Amino acid sequence: MKYFSLKALHFLFIFSFFFITVSYAQQHGKINxxxxxxxGKPASEVNIILKDSKYSTFTNEDGYFELSRIRENNxxxxxxxxGYETSEQQVTVENGKTATVNVxxxxxxxxxxxxxxNNRKSLISKKTTYVARMPLKNIENxxxxxxxHKELIQEQVVIDIxxxxxxxxxxxxxNFPSGGFAVIFRGxxxxxxxxxxxxxxxxxxxxxxxxxxxxxxxxxxxxTLFGSSASSFGGVVNLVTKKPFETSATEVSYTGGSFSTxxxxxxxxxxLTKDKNVLFRLNAAVNREKSFLDYGFNNTLSFAxxxxxxxxxxxxxxIDAELFNVNNTRPLYPAVTAASGISNPSQIKLDYKKSLVHxxxxxxxxxxxxxxxxxxxxxERWKSTTLFSYVNEDVEYSYQVLPTWTSPTTxxxxxxxxxxxxxxxxxxxxxxxxxxxxGILKHKIxxxxxxxxxxxxxxxxxxxxxxxxxxxxxxxxxxxxxKDIDAVLLAPVIRAGRDEYTFSGxxxxxxxxxxRLFAMASLRFDNFERKDSGAVPxxxxxxxxxxxxxxxxxxxxxxxxxxxxMNGFQNLAPVNxxxxxxxxxxPLYANQYEAGVKAELFNKKLSTTFSYYNITxxxxxxxxxxxxxxxxxxxxxxxxxxxxxxxPFPGLDITAGYAYNDNxxxxxxxxxxAIEGNKAQDAPANVVNFWASYKFQNALKGFGIGAGANYVDxxxxxxxxxxxxxxxxxxxxxxxxxxxxxRIGLKLNNITNExxxxxxxxxxxxxxxxxxxxxxx
Length: 777
Known about the structure:
By secondary structure, the chain is mainly beta. The protein is built from 6 helices and 45 strands. The chain is 6% helix and 54% strand. The radius of gyration is 27 Å and the shape is globular. The chain has a 26-stranded mixed beta sheet that branches. Strands 8-14-15-12-13 form a 5-stranded mixed beta sheet. A 4-stranded antiparallel beta sheet has the order 3-2-5-6, with no helix packed on it. The longest helix has 24 residues, at 2-25.
């Protein structure tokens, strides 16, 4: 399989090199320049169009742009920004020469950040303040991260979070039987636990994407800045939501297709006052769809209002909320006995499109999220950001069925009714950002504190330990219904609620030794306390998490080499030993060392990252055969990652990635020697993603096509390495036509009709289609 993956990586290099070479082979004339705002700051992501031609581009993070291969002539350059007058500049292009045009926009940098450009934004942009919690360019940042823009999600006609995250290198989605959603990368899984940089959750109610502006995937242990509750040893996924802007705009979109899919979304934005100091935006979505199985469904409703209030020139408030309701059937978690002879789900003789469970054994959950941000500009270079968030997730009820396959044709059935369950998170955070210079040295500083309070209630009702039903799939069986489960439920098990308090302080410092050399040092202190709940004793724990990074730009703002040391941690509760004693566990730490290269070339028409990483956890908790716990295990996850995003010539966009990961249990206690050397669970070795689209520029303007593929290597469901999920490749294609005020798109998913299973063994949809129609007002 490694040979296939190396060939795939080789293909990506050749493909990108071919288009870049072709696009720059014939030089004519060039136009370059810089766009700045009225307050003198660079204007990024501004649309630059050469009137009556096929040429267009966007300004980069520093406001610079470049148009190349332009025939000699006189042109009109249009600088376009929604809600503002288009600026026109006359320019003359001569063969072999570069014409320079600089434009000042009649808009401040703050206003610029709040507008939406009608034309599609560049997919290459990685501008963000969340990854480092300070304004730091990708080329200056020693951490690897990927950004998935809403424009790519729209182009691919993606209607769920699972389809969206596949665009990031090495990322594999997984839907849990609990109803939660997570992703796997760098050998570890993590939920969607960050929203606009603050803690959120996706434990039992999943995640909607109607309100998503972009998805940021931060690679590597990120406990130093994000804490243990939002991150895993693999990294963090941060959702950035849509924000209000200064002009009135409405977009209505409908998507329909296979499996009775019907989805309606609405995005309404409007100023509420004449002076545009109060802005309002609402995103809402209704989704109804059946499963490709004979039973099963997924119905969701989301409602996300947001308000921006500019109290004065220095103080701005952002307030937003999100309600997300889910009513669906849960995916099953297949277990197998040793005597079954089953090593992977393809050996189970159940018809691929048949369900063991009826529609009425379903689940109902809801989540409510509220966020308030106050941003105060202390001075030109110093800023205070105060944040408050509250997140609640409720499970009214959730029927979860566990089949255990005793042979390829026979399954015994157990089940659990979960709920009511309630989880509540409250976070208060304060960040101070600043920058200053001393001689040739440049300094950027972040200092922050965070208070977190978590409480929950939990109850579940199991069926007997012995199976209450056996199903022979060779017969005309009836699926398990709610009444079948209700008839054998035992007494509810109510777990004592948890009260957890976490106080955190962190700081990050970036030193610019020159305009090419940058050093980062960060440190976090956590005090974690769980209150005594009676049945479960409380405990108190402190954690210290450092982060170091170094970046050197070989070519200024174009190519940099970087290295980092990053730390992640998890607070662990004490465990009871068989002799009645209690083992107080240290926080679980993982340390990453990584080195690589980042490049942003040809006026940011090409962005690429290549890195090697090694993540080590040397104090894993191992439970021995005699049930005695020891904290002496060691796990090592190492690998390489490659990302390429390119716009080699107008109309063509390429997004591609390759990741290789080797995550193994390298050391265990004597009682667990059988798994020493085994692969970790949920850790596919090779993952490839590729997507390319072309939008016609002259004839057939507005028409576009796209195609792509995802490959995921086999993975094991446990460290015993006895049951695995087979590898798979899925191919997708889209055709679309768009104008200024409307768009229609057709998407074909899994066009080769591949049979494949998720990382937790649930069968995935065969070939199907989606049609999307959107109108803008």
